[in-house]
Design a protein that fits this description.
Blueprint (H helix, E strand, L loop, with lengths): L8 E6 L2 E6 L7 E3 L6 H12 L16 H9 L2 H4 L3 H18 L9 H9 L6 H21 L23 H10 L5 H12 L3 H4 L4 H5 L3 E3 L6 E3 L4 H8 L19 H14 L10 H12 L4 H8 L4 H30 L16 H11 L11
Antiparallel strand pairs: 1-2, 2-3, 4-5
Helix pairs in contact: 1-4, 4-6, 8-11, 8-13, 13-14, 13-15, 14-15
């Protein structure tokens, strides 16, 4: 049987030869390598998905000393080889977009002004793409310095564009989803897995019953970090109400495991059906777990272990936010106590005034005289 092709890829027969092309709707066709299992096909497909290759021609050969040659050198390095397959796919898409648009430029000609003017400014209306571009460009610059192609980092001083960060869900949004999808529904089980285990979509769609029965153990696909945590009570309730018809916990209507993209669409449909805004994304449930762990008093190391972080930086961000919220609450409590204690207990009229009497004045004078000296009698 013919190999199943990725989305938007067509198989055409011309004079007995099979050709593959990328096309969205009735848009222009972009020729792709004929072997869908090859590395060249994956790179060309990633470039077509990025929307760059249809506008600019692909550079056939990268001249020495150019950005294109630098990208080829980095992709042949051990740093790139050590990345996970998921990370490689994301890197290749952005690196190919940089190569197609700027591969002809000389590496030694890179300056702060040229990077901003020619590479980043055209992406001003796409902050996410601009942020990813400067990240990948700095990786290339570091590689160029290690290879001796550059003596300094020309991107120093360039501020990172602010992209739209995926946020955690609010308590009200969590409650709305749970009302729409009660325990026993497949949508609720998928939600419970992501919320209580902190799994990303690439980890969730193939979770097996053995993994959750053994105490929510899995290995992060992105970083390869092993995560071993206990099954929470909420997750246990959702799992007990889920039929065990397959080795995977979540399956399609046909009883088969989801693909990554299929699972993403499944979750987006469930979120939309719950009436939640576009800001509620499946990956936000992972951040919600980090927030709840910090609010519960978990340490940075606890959060790092639960979410499979490779550094403490991300986990510490959750604890800092939780400490800030707790500090704000304590400040208001102290303010209320201060206002209550500073309220007058009696009427202010004549408060603190002493009645001036003759006897008091005389007593005061006696007390003020040195011992052994009698006061003068009044005239």
């Amino acid at each position: 049987m013919p190999r199943k092709l990725p989305p938007n890829v067509e198989r055409n027969q011309v004079k007995g030869h099979t050709y593959l092309s990328f096309r969205i709707g009735k848009g222009p066709r972009i020729r792709l390598p004929s072997d869908p299992a090859s590395q060249e096909f994956r790179e060309a497909y990633a470039a077509a998905m990025a929307g760059e290759i249809a506008v600019k021609p692909t550079i056939k050969k990268d001249a020495p000393g150019t950005i294109g040659a630098l990208i080829a050198s980095y992709k042949a390095s051990g740093k790139f080889a050590g990345l996970s397959e998921t990370s490689k796919t994301g890197y290749m898409s952005r690196l190919e977009a940089i190569r197609v648009g700027h591969g002809h430029r000389a590496v030694t000609g890179l300056t702060k002004d040229r990077i901003e003017s020619f590479i980043l400014d055209p992406l001003a209306d796409r902050p996410g793409a601009a942020l990813d571009t400067i990240k990948k460009l700095r990786i290339l610059i570091k590689h160029a310095i290690n290879k001796g192609w550059l003596k300094y980092d020309p991107s120093t001083g360039i501020k990172r564009p602010k992209g739209k960060e995926i946020r955690a869900w609010t308590d009200a949004e969590l409650a709305a989803y749970e009302r729409r999808w009660p325990i026993g529904k497949k949508q609720r089980t998928a939600y419970a897995l992501m919320l209580n285990m902190g799994t990303a979509r690439v980890d969730t769609h193939l979770l097996t019953w053995n993994q959750v029965d053994d105490g929510a153990c899995y290995r992060r696909h992105k970083t390869g970090v092993a995560v071993d945590m206990a099954v929470s009570e909420d997750l246990q309730k959702a799992l007990e109400a889920t039929p065990r018809n397959h080795v995977c916990v979540i399956t399609t209507v046909f009883g088969k495991p989801f693909t990554v993209d299929g699972f993403s669409g499944f979750m987006r449909d469930a979120i939309r059906a719950a009436g939640l805004p576009l800001g509620c994304q499946p990956h936000g449930l992972r951040k919600t777990l980090g927030r709840m762990l910090a609010d519960a008093g978990a340490t940075s190391h606890d959060i790092m272990a639960a979410l499979g972080h490779t550094t403490l930086a991300e986990a510490e961000r959750y604890t800092r936010e939780a400490d800030r919220r707790r500090g704000g609450t304590r400040a208001v409590v102290k303010l209320n106590e201060h206002r209550a204690n500073s309220s007058p207990q009696t009427a202010p009229k004549r408060l603190g005034k002493l009645v001036k009497r003759k006897e008091n004045r005389m007593i005061g004078k006696r007390l003020a005289l040195p011992s052994g000296i009698e006061p003068l009698s009044p005239q």
